[in-house]
Structures are given as C-alpha cells and as structure tokens.
Amino acid sequence: MWLILPVIGVALIVFILKYVFASSGPNPFQTDTREPLKKMVHDRKEKNKVLKQGFVAGKVPENLDAVIIGSGIGGLGLAVLMAKVGKKVLVLEQHDRAGGCCHTFTEKGFEFDVGIHYIGDLLEHKPFRCMLDQMTNGQLQWEPLENPYDQVVLGPPENRRRYPIYSGRTCFPEELKKCFPGEEKAIDEYMKLVKKVRRDIWLLAVLKLCPVPVAKVLVYTGLAQHLSFFFKMAPRSATEVVNELTENKDLRAVFTYIFGTYGNMPKDASFAMHSLLVTHYLNGAWYPKGGASEIAYHMIPIIEKAGGAVLVRAPVNRILFNDAKEACGVSVMKGQEEVHIRAPMVISNAGIFNTYEKLLPKELQARPAIQKQLSMMKNGEGGLSVFLGLDGTKEELGLKADNYWIFAENNYDELVEEYLNGEREESTKKIPLLFVASPSAKDPTWEERSPGKSTLSLVSFAKYSWFEEWKDGKVTNRGPDYKDLKQAFIDSTLEVVMDIFPKITRDKIEYADAGTPITNTHYIGSPKGEIYGADHGVDRFSPELGMTMRPQTPLKNLYLTGQDVFVCGFAGALAGALTCGSVIFNRNLHLDAIALAKKTKLLNDKVKGE
Predict the structure, then answer these.
(1) Predicted local distance difference test score (pLDDT) of residue 610
(2) How far is 326 from 591, CA to CA, in rounded Å?
(3) What is the DSSP string of 340-362?
(4) Can you give the pLDDT at residue 135?
(5) Residue 292 in contact with residue 301, Cβ under 8 Å?
(6) Phi, psi at residue 509, to the nearest 5°?
(7) What stretch(es) of the chain map to CATH 3.90.660.50?
(8) Which residues of 552-575 are buried (b: 16+ CB within 10 A; e: fewer)?
(9) pLDDT, mean of residues 306-320
(10) Is the per-residue pLDDT at 79 higher than 50?
(11) What letters, b where the CB count within 10 A reaches 16 and e where it falls short, cover 75-98?
(12) Domain 61-141+289-377+549-609 belongs to what architecture?
C-alpha cells in the first residue's frame, strides 16, 4: 500500500502540471495594451451612448463566437478577455444600462453607485491591478481612500467605541495593538492565519481547472485539506476561530466586522472566505475615479472593437438547445416576441439559480448533475440599500473618503439572528449593522460634476420574505404599505447617520430612498434580492463544492462565469471570469495575469533605474 501513495502523488503532479500550468490556447495577457490616458468624459449623454445601447435584432453582430447573459463584471470581464483574442461576443443585459452591480443611477441630480464601495489589492503592478489595467486598456483610474479606510463603531450612543482600521501589512496589526493593549499575541496569530489562508487559495482554482477525475482524487482522499490551508480552515466559522484567539469581545468584533461584505453572520461564515476579504484590503482600498460606471464604460469599447456588442433591455427568457441537447443560443424577449440569437457557446453570468431554474427547459433542469449542483448551493441573504442626496460639500458635512461599519453592539451573531428572525415591523427599529460610505467624498471628480452636493450610500441586510408580497407590483409604485415599510427602514438608518455625522441634519437631506430585496431582483436579477450571489457560508467552501461548481456545466457549450463560479464581490466575480476564460482558452489565465504583472514591473523598474 505504501508503494501506491508515491505513484498517486507523482500522477497527480503530472496531471496538474499538464492541465493547470500548461497552456495551449490564446493569451489575452500576451502584451501590455495600456494606452495613454484620455480625457475623462463626464457628460452623461455621451456615456449613455456606450452604457445604454438598447437591444434590437439589427444590432446583433453576425457570426458570433459566444453570447454572454448578464453585463455584471463577471460577464463583461470575460467578454473583454475573449475580445482581446479576437472573439466576437454579444453581452445581453436585462436592465436599461450595462454594468450589473457596477452601474450607477441618478435621481434628483444625485448620482449613486449600487455595489462598488471600495476595492482592494490595487497596488501598481500587482496581478489584480495589472488585470484591470489590461481589461480597460489603462483608462480606468483609481483613487486611494483615507487611511484608516474603515471605522468600526460598536455600541449605542451612550457607550460608543470606535476602532480605526488601517491598511498596510504592518500598519494594520500595529494600529490594532494600540487599540487593544495586551492582545498582541491574539492579533499576531490572527494575521498569521488570514495570510496563510490567502496564500493557499490556489487549490480552489486547481479544483475548478483540472480534470474531474484528478479533482475527485484530491477531494475524496482528503489531499485537498492536507495540501491547502484554505481548505483546512474552510469548515471552521469566523466566530469559532476568533473566539479561540481572544476573550475580548470588542476585539472579536473588530476581527470579524467585515462579514457584511459577503453576507453571512460570523458563526455561519467560513473563516477561509473571511480571510480572503481581510487580506484583500491589507495593502489599501481604492475607488474608481469618475464613479463605478467608469468600469463598464471603458470595457465595452474593447468588446466592440473585436466586432462584439453589449446590448441592454435584452431580457433572456431561455437558453436554446439543439437536438443533441447542446446549447446553441438564447431567446430574448422583445415586447411580446421572441428573438432567437444563435452562437456556438452560451455563457451565463446570471448566477446558478437563474441559469438552471429559469433559463433551462424543464427536462434539462431535471438532470441529476444539474440538481446536484443546485442542492449544494443556497440563496444568499437579501440586501437593503439606502441612498441619501445631501446639500453641502464633503467639508461642510464632515464626510471623508472612508467607510463606517456601525453595529448596535459587539455580539454580531445574536443581533443579526434576532433581526432576521424577527417580525419585520419590529426589525425596522433594530437594524444591527449599517455600512455607511460617501461615494462623493471618495471621487476626486465629484466636485467638478456636482458642485455643492454630496451623497451617502448605506447598506444592510433584509429578508426577501418581508417584501415578497409586493414583488409583482409596479417598480416605481408598489403601493402605500410598501412605501411605509421602506420609510421605516430609512428613518431608522437616518437616526444612526445623524448621530455619527452631526453636521448632517434633516434640512440637509434633499433626497432619500431605499432599495429592498425586491428592488435588487428587478434591477440586477437576483432571485431572492441577494447582492453577493449564492450563499457564502461554511458549506460553500467544501472541497467537493469547489470541484463541482466549475465553469463547465453538465450541458455541452453552456458555461458559467462570475460570483457563483469562484467567490463574491468585484474581485471574486473577476476571478470567476478568469477561471471561465481559462477553460475556454485551455490555458491558465490566472498565471498569465501574474506573468504580465511581473513583466511590466521589471520594465518599469528598469526605466526608473535608467
């Protein structure tokens, strides 16, 4: 028996080298495609010519290489990668503008982002920054946030504690130690754990890219947990891990405050997922200059240059299959008529539930392999957003380029569970978590675009069932009861905001509205109003699910991209796009992005040396 183990080990290494590290297809990161910066466009009508190209059959390019459903970053990012190697791709978006959670909207003269509040890991020449530079030909600019970039606020007004969160691999723990003297050992161990987990994320990609038989050996022999600290820590919750590190309840709360960026209570959240978010911001946080719409605005022309298109108001109602049950296109509803669009490849960025439960014929949806994937995933928690338009500059209102994470107390698990399980009218009065950020204070172009005005974006969670009775109503007029319920949530959040920001008074608020889970369903197509795709609890990060949820679906020529393929958020959805592209191109695009980042850094260092 002991002779067999080395043979299995060698065979696995050969397979991994052959299928994961060897590359035979086209490389979208072959050359540095950055161009000199062009003048930023602030005129909304000009930008809408790119972002709001409405669907008509005559705009569909001929001889498509692929159709992508959904223009979120997982869809647009993959379309750009394909365009860079000469593929003609059509991206279809059901909303009236492209971008998914990267889109912006304007009300009463105020522009609001909906999902991009801050992005980490964007130091010059790092792989993630390099990848985004290539996907926008160097036109997307980033503005660093303040340092500290996050403020954790715990407790009621009479006993409020504030803990600043600094970026910097040494600054973050050192500043934390100043807040919690005597907890140096716990903080050092926490940092050691999150960094070690992040380093071993590579095996998650391997499980999705290597042949299924190899992945099964890694998973069912337990090798995945032995080879990767990521998978070793995946079954453990954030609460479980931090409670072993310290008895200090405020420090436990500060260790786990970022759970709001993936949508699970710390007791249900995988420490592996938690570690990815913590380390994502260790080197800093950034915001796109010109607002979140700049992301799609600079990606779409690259898709168009290759002969593709990004069309909106194009709701895909089903995926088309030929007699061999191979995906061969999509059907788009144009009024009461179906428009059929043919393509040899269909890629869905609509999420696993929309793709399998809404877009597949019933007989294909019933296939055991499809049902197995659905049974392994569940819907994430619904998102609640409040948008405030304010009269006054950031200086006049005391706003900065940072974020506030405000909690009713340090016992997150109990508070969130009570809130989500409570009666909705009562829960409106005791929101346990509120994320508060000012997009206008983060964007250096804001004053030029909207002088004398400011905005706040507030985010929390709410149950889809609280609002479900109004899901079929008219979006802009769902009735007085729905409006009253929204107003109750708005009033509760305003009390918190005006306490934390005393310069913001009611007479400064010119616009206030809320987006509920059913708002999210309408605008970004999330089945249960979730904002982070499928649930990111402990079960999501088992090696078996990591292996099973891959870009290839059980149906030929149908692929998945975006958050549900990898992990949630902007970076996670892009990782899903790279993983899907890796399968389509038969090469590891993650490694290609790393290689180009190293190459550009060497060239830059050489120029500086001269």
Answers:
(1) 63
(2) 30
(3) EEE-S-EEE-S-HHIIIIISS-H
(4) 97
(5) no
(6) -90, 110
(7) 146-283+379-524
(8) ebebebbbbbbbbbbbbbbbbbbb
(9) 98
(10) yes
(11) bbbbbbbbbbbebbbbbbbbbebb
(12) 3-Layer(bba) Sandwich (3.50)
CA dihedral 534, 297, 575, 66 (to 10 degrees): 90
The overall average pLDDT reported for the chain is 94
Q: What one-letter code names the amino acid at 43?
A: D
Candidates 3.30.470.10, 3.40.50.620, 1.20.210.10, 3.90.660.50; CATH matching 146-283+379-524: 3.90.660.50
Cβ-based neighbours of 56, under 8 Å, separated by 6 or more: 334
| Inter-axis angle of helices 184-199 and 249-256, nearest 10 | 20
As a whole number of angstroms, the distance between CA 523 and CA 476 comes to 12
pLDDT at 603: 81
Residue 30: other Cβ atoms inside 10 A: 13
Higher pLDDT, 607 or 97: 97
Could you tell me the pTM of the whole model? 0.95
Token pair in block for residue 5: 């183990």
pLDDT at residue 5, as a whole number? 47
Angle at 230 between CA 229 and CA 236, to 5 degrees: 95
For 361, the token pair is 């014929």
The single residue listed with the structure tokens 């898709």 is: 303
According to CATH, where is 3.50.50.60 located in the chain?
Answer: 61-141+289-377+549-609
**Torsion angle defined by CA atoms of residues 519, 521, 527 and 530, in that order, rounded to the nearest 10 degrees:** -50
